[in-house]
Amino acid sequence: MKNKTELIILTGFLGSGKSTLLKRLLKEEQQKGRRIAVIMNEVGKVSVDSATIPEKTPIREMLNGCICCSIQGDLTVQIKGLLEQYELDTIYIEATGVAHPLEIMNACTHPQLIGTSYLKSVITTVHAKQWFEKKMSIKLRKLMNEQIRFADLVIINHTDRVDSSTIREVEAGIKHINENAHVYDTSFASIQLPSNELDKQKSHLTNEEAEFDAHIHHSLHIRTVTLPILSAVERVAFTNWLCQKDQLYRAKGFIQLHETPGMFLFNLSYGDVAFERLKKVRQQQPILVLIGERLDREMIESELSRMYV
To answer: In CATH, which of 2.160.10.10, 3.30.1220.10, 3.30.420.270, 3.30.1490.190 is domain 222-305?
Structure first.
């Protein structure tokens, strides 16, 4: 009898480290010789994080919407399609940072998927400093709490940016929200989970259990701005510009730097900007994706144009 395919959901607020964690988990899965596929959700029109997925890994990208609202129905279809096309051990589903996990869980337990797959685990990443400081709207703070509430595992990431007493407070706050979750502390999503940690099959939850309206554009005022980058920029000037923008929760994209040849993947997460040279450029064009509250596209475009070398 054919084994059912495991479905593992990765949630967590913008910039908490989901994509880095996914990259590490996929590497471990490859080393074990397991057959893996990935579904990635982006609220913008362009997928950036998919460039880090290992080659030959089946991947489906759900763009320009949030799994939990405008394209939830398509998630079940995407899962079903992967199951019909490939022999898989696990499908990892990385949700956008403003997704409510319950609706994703419901899509993963749709009657169409019974007999072929099961929801194995929900993993939530938390940016330690971001969660502790809570410098965001009440709606977004509530969303972060909801992401923790429905998790089997909570990974407190970026612990290198806070002291030990802060970590203890974050742990206590998370346990207050979800006393049953297993909580791990780490930096750079560098963690090896015990194999039995993911062996917790979820039961189906109903929509009535979620009283939180998480529609990203109307309730949370989250907006995505996607712009082409028309020329190389200076690394320091570009970094400073990103870090000075208020209410910017996430920035990422592909960029060419004036100082160094090549194409770079860049990521901004709660004040930290990282650049990673792409070893293999899969026809990526320089592009900027900003995610935040009440972003002014025209102003951003004007400011960016002044940085072109």
So the answer is: 3.30.1220.10
